Queue: 2 jobs
Job 1
Amino acid sequence: GILSMFAVQAGAAHVYGVDCSGIIESAKRIVKDNGMEDKITLIKGKIEEIDLPVKEVDIIVSEWMGYFLLYESMLNTVLHARDKWLKPGGVIFPDKAVMYISALEDEQMKFERIDFWDNVYGFNMSVLKEAALKEPVVDIVDPKHIVTSADHILNIDLNTCTEKDLSFSSPFRIQAERSDYVHAFVAYFECAFTNIHKPLGFSTSPQSKYTHWKQTIFYLSEPMTVCEGEEITGTITCKPNVGNVRDLDIELDVKFDGSRSKVDTHIEYRLR
């Protein structure tokens, strides 16, 4: 509802808003209460199943991003709407997204979230540690804990990408910016609106202003000891889970040959 009203406020001649949940009934009342019912048509249903009363639209606006950019993402739906209704030369907001990865020191939080299962009131519950390690954590990362540079792992152009592009395997190479321990990797993303007079965007990086997407943390079973200037290389792979396509299966292959530690590991995660 509110995106539709923002669009009218910005000058849209008519807006078609689509939502498959019951909240659309409240949205209709809100639209009417704000005197916009003649410029906004709200349709209940799935984009893949509904029809619009027009053959094409000039602009598609959607807040489709999820944790780790793609978790529970509505991007497939946006691409369907693009291919079905967006006129040639039409615009999508936002239209660009880039995801990054870097490494961090996080000993205290790793202990509280993962390692404490080794000894719970004197009991060995490490079987739960194995399960906890496989679940990425969505939380705020203190930028002071970032140890390395960042590398981009996904670059999406909504004007041209396809559903296949949303499953990816990307190599990365990051460099230690100080000597420290590495307990985890962290991923974050940026989105941009480039098809406007003055392009703008936002970032979910630890150095940027807080967003509800926060950052996504992937803990390692054992920490690495890195020295300034040393490089960590690896590959991150992501695809929808077969049993629940809203979940993500993510794999990390990490290689590090440092002066104080050496790592060659493969870890599988599930973001759910």
Job 2
Amino acid sequence: GKTYGLFVRGSGNEDTVTNIHTHGLHIPGHGNADDVTRTVSGSDVIIYEYHIPTYHMGGTHWYHAHWHHHSEQFVGGGAFGMLIVEDGSNVGTGVDAGVEAFLKNEKIFIASNHEDIYGPFVVNGVEGDLESYDFNSDEWYRLRILTVNLDPNTSSRTISFGDECQAYAIAHDGIFRFEVPARTAQNDFSIGDASRLDVAIRCASDSTISINDETVATIKAGQPSTKSVVPSPFKSSIEGQSWSSTRPDYLADLRDAITYYTYELKLDETNINQQTYSLEKPLCLGHSDVQYGSIYEWELRLSYHPLHLHIYPMQVVSENNECGENHEYGEFYDTITIRNEGMGRSRCKVRIAFVDVGGKTLMQCHLFKHGDQGAMAFFHVVGGPTQPDEPRVHECASGLCDEPVSIPLCSSGESLNT
């Protein structure tokens, strides 16, 4: 693995406090790492230390500002972007030269409405015109998709490719499917807030990409490829032949696992389980902290509120479509958004392995306005490895910058700086 140091400088305004969150990474949420209670302002500079372990699955993630009460404001100002973890050398079983070439044959699609939350989505920041992609005809590409939504009244959307194209899902929220690609090609994909989707796509001729039936990008299909190694998402380049992704412990199949505890979560606009965001009161799952190394089953009652869990991906274990059309049984996601018309508060069941990383972490409604209003909660994973607080501050004009924030434990009332 590799360790990265990120130096973040304030805006120059002492009254503007912000920070950064790496959405989707399996790294600590405390110490000098991805802790959303960290702050920077004025001309101060703080240091984030991210260790990406060797076992971390490669994938499509993103980053955004995450200072409570101001996330919507800062993301609306453009404080977000895509973050990619490279695939590495052990992607899966059945990965041959064609698959390797395909995985590197990538295009980026970042759709946001941060300039006008009720207007059309803009792709890759191209305003006043449509983003345009140049494809070789009938060549397979890996399209990395991120949607960033600021509208608090909607949490899902449909991304559609024209009939000239063929597309298969290969990863959700930066996590490869167990079997890659999906068995069935699609032209329409439902995707929730804060989620990512990687698809394998090829087009026989010029086509379009739409969000909720509104065209947001065009595809220009040129001449066929002349590459010596033909990119293909399929094993042996035979359509329908899938390959199996390598699964680290935090993404192992939990469907037959013994669970430590079952817990129900209900999200609303201002709270989680009727508890609003607090630095003095963590969310106690079954009146206690989470034990490191345990497996939990959560029953989610979300309505249209997207639940994002920092650090630990969630595996969908409801077989009856109660997790909605955005999610497949058995696959992993870091954000669950239920989108089934007329379902009300469905009982979506997910399982989480609390491994590799300990300390405090956060869950939230990922409609930015709702998170800012209090639909967020810290909880502790106790007994696991901890992240150091230092190095933490690089430049500090006031002499007191980015002090660690302690959150009480459920079990004893004590506080941890983790």
